[in-house]
Amino acid sequence: MSTPDSRPVTNEVTVRACPDGPLLLRGPATIVDEAGDAVPRSRATVALCRCGGTAIAPWCDGTHKVNGYRSDD
Ligand code: FES
Question: Which one of 2, 7, 38, 71 has the largest count of C-beta atoms within 10 Å of its C-beta?
Fold first, then answer.
């Protein structure tokens, strides 16, 4: 089986840090909140906030683009 862009479907989980932005999580990982409850997700790839500015935690809402977040600080 393949994804729509012809990449093979795998159970691999990857997390990629975007420069000055979120962590892109790809794959079938379960995200849990501080209470240990699973956070529902509907996409195979999700962006996790690491700037602390998002209004929709744990997801990135683009606020890092306006709050001056720098990943190299
Ligand atoms: S990393 Fe995008 S809003 Fe925080």
Answer: 71
